[in-house]
Each structure stands twice: as structure tokens, then as C-alpha cells.
Fold:
Amino acid sequence: MPEMISITPHIAIEERELEETFVRASGPGGQNVNKLSTAVQLRFHLRGSPNIPPGMKLRAEKLAGQRLTREGVIVISADRFRTQEQNREDARARLIELLQRASVVPKVRRKTRPTLASKKRRIEGKKHRSAVKNRRGRPDLD
Structure:
């Protein structure tokens, strides 16, 4: 049975759906920065994944932004750490976090109308404020 990566209690992706390539990183690494390929490029074919529901795919595409290619592949680069393993874990964690955010279905907004009482309170407040401001004027000399 293939290794599964849990996204939500009901959604998981297979380990083989992820493609990792290791490249030379800029940033921390000391003398090894020019010798070792510690940065990770994680690729996940979102549109081709059979385990992701269609609505979640659309939300994930919006959330991925520039990390999404024309072919529907999410590319996550990780070079924050000095070791390949830490960068690998970082890239996977970022992919899982993106997919978890995409799994949340936005709440549908229903139009509501203000109640009659709230309208009356608003008008009374306006009348009161108007009266206060009118009393600030010059007094009548009658």
C-alpha cells in the first residue's frame, strides 16, 4: 500500500504524487553552500491528483498564486535551512498547510435586512445628534 500524507481527516495524498529535486541553495550553509544541493523544489501535480476534490482544487489554485504553473503543478522551493532533510520537511509542511487552507469551504453570505427597531434607533440617534449640534449655534436675540 502506498505511503499516504494526511491533509485532513478525510483527505490524504500519496507520497508518490510528490516530486522532489535538490538544487544548490543561496543563503545559509557556510563553506558547504557552493558544494551541496540542500535546497528542495517540491512539485505536486494538483490538477492530476485523484485524491483532491474538485472544489478544493479550485481553492488551492487561487491560494497557490504564482507557485502554480500553467500545467497545474504547485512548485514550492525551500532553502531556509542548512540541511536537505530540514528543507524537505519545510517544503512538505508548507504544501500541507496550503492544502489544509484550501480544504476549508468558505461560508456562504446571506443577505440580511436591518430590523425595524434598529432603523428607528439609528434615526433617533441622528435626530439627537442634530439637536445637539443645533444648540451650538449663536443664541437668538429675541
